[in-house]
Automatic annotation (TrEMBL):
<dbReference type="Pfam" id="PF00884">
    <property type="entry name" value="Sulfatase"/>
</dbReference>
<dbReference type="GO" id="GO:0005764">
    <property type="term" value="C:lysosome"/>
</dbReference>
<dbReference type="GO" id="GO:0016250">
    <property type="term" value="F:N-sulfoglucosamine sulfohydrolase activity"/>
</dbReference>
<dbReference type="InterPro" id="IPR000917">
    <property type="entry name" value="Sulfatase_N"/>
</dbReference>
<protein>
    <submittedName>
        <fullName>N-sulfoglucosamine sulfohydrolase</fullName>
    </submittedName>
</protein>
<dbReference type="GO" id="GO:0006027">
    <property type="term" value="P:glycosaminoglycan catabolic process"/>
</dbReference>
<dbReference type="InterPro" id="IPR017850">
    <property type="entry name" value="Alkaline_phosphatase_core_sf"/>
</dbReference>
<comment type="similarity">
    <text>Belongs to the sulfatase family.</text>
</comment>
<feature type="domain" description="Sulfatase N-terminal">
    <location>
        <begin position="3"/>
        <end position="212"/>
    </location>
</feature>
<dbReference type="GO" id="GO:0030200">
    <property type="term" value="P:heparan sulfate proteoglycan catabolic process"/>
</dbReference>
Length: 350
């Protein structure tokens, strides 16, 4: 959605692209890098890609999990800094777009458990962990972290969240390095910087859930392509995927918000898939302080993705405590999390 500004059920890519999931966008979809390439604007990506097919998402400069170590291009901020420098050094005075989708602060306990649940130990200088020269690790006390209401208040969950905060710090320091490289190359004052996310934190009630109160992505995916095209003063093409009905963007350019407050009070959300086994379509609308969620397939249990399934919060807390009949210190039971009402309405003013 970030590179298309078309929601899953519009672009055909309902879940992850890599490995057994094998989701792909429709061949005729025109992504942001494709549109920019056709306008002779150079494109680059460093980090997580997770989308396909290649002909829909072409990049002139690419260092991703498809051709590089996921740890090096997604979490090693020194390596990322040097790749950004390489991209900028090969850049002339013409326009360009560089995407930096970080693997921090995603979980990695299901793929690289030796580095911790969030790879928070990767590159910290300890024995066997490697060293990232530009990173000064920030450690957080589990007892002192402030918990979102949807995270269980237990020692295991607190330690889990504290580990993620360490990787958020690494990502934050990496962003500082990237901005410094822009300044070093003389592009800082002529560059539009967009900082965003595609989901909430990977805790129960967070990622894959449209519930209010969880950390929300700071930039709406449908608005990314209209904003970038507006920045480059490019029109969105007229085309269709199936039949005569033209593709229409549902988002809008956010550039006007840089100069004045905009009267936008309604937002829509959509979730269909994540991993190939995780079909649980949800639609949501937020208007002022009200949020309505429609769980389309509410009679089936809500699925758990593999990285959250092996997490300390789920295994050591929710699953183990539920099996033992012990208090979970959570705002709902595991059964309530699995089996949801068809419609859920929230009043955020209360």
């Amino acid at each position: 959605s970030l590179l298309l500004s078309l929601l899953q059920h519009q672009n055909g890519m309902y879940g992850l692209h890599q490995d057994v999931h094998h989701f792909n966008s429709f061949d005729k979809v025109r992504s942001l890098p494709l549109l920019l390439s056709q306008a002779r604007i150079r494109t680059g990506i460093i980090g997580k890609k997770h989308v396909g097919p290649e002909m829909v998402y072409p990049f002139d400069f690419a260092y991703t999990e498809e051709n590089s170590s996921v740890l090096q291009v997604g979490r090693n901020i020194t390596r990322i800094k040097l790749l950004v420098r390489k991209f900028l050094q090969s850049q002339d005075e013409s326009s360009s777009l560089l995407a930096l989708p970080s693997h921090d602060p995603h979980r990695c306990g299901h793929t690289q458990p030796q580095y911790g649940a969030f790879c928070e130990k990767f590159g910290n200088g300890e024995s066997g962990m490697g060293w990232i020269p530009d990173w000064t690790p920030q450690l957080y006390s589990p007892e002192a972290v402030e918990l979102p209401y949807f995270v269980p208040d237990t020692p295991a969950a607190r330690a889990d969240l504290a580990a993620q905060y360490t990787t958020i710090g690494r990502m934050d320091q990496g962003i500082g390095l990237v901005l410094a490289e822009l300044g070093r190359a003389g592009f800082l004052n002529t560059t539009l910087v967009i900082y965003t996310s595609d989901n909430g934190i990977p805790f129960p009630g967070g990622r894959h859930n449209p519930y209010p109160g969880q950390p929300s992505p700071p930039f709406l995916p449908p608005d990314l392509t209209p904003t970038v095209l507006d920045w480059f003063r490019l029109p969105y093409p007229s085309y269709s995927i199936f039949g005569p009905t033209p593709v229409r963007l549902t988002g809008k350019s956010l550039l006007p918000a840089l100069s004045s407050e905009q009267p936008w009070v309604t937002a829509f959300g959509s979730q269909s898939h994540h991993e190939v086994t995780m079909y649980y379509p949800m639609r949501a609308v937020q208007h002022q302080h009200f949020r309505l969620i429609h769980n389309l397939n509410f009679r089936m249990p809500f699925p758990i993705d593999q990285d959250f399934y092996v997490s300390p919060t789920f295994q050591d807390d929710l699953l183990a405590r539920t099996r033992a009949g012990q208090p979970t210190h959570w705002n709902k039971s595991l059964h309530q999390y699995y089996y949801r009402d068809r419609c859920e309405l929230f009043d955020r003013s209360r």
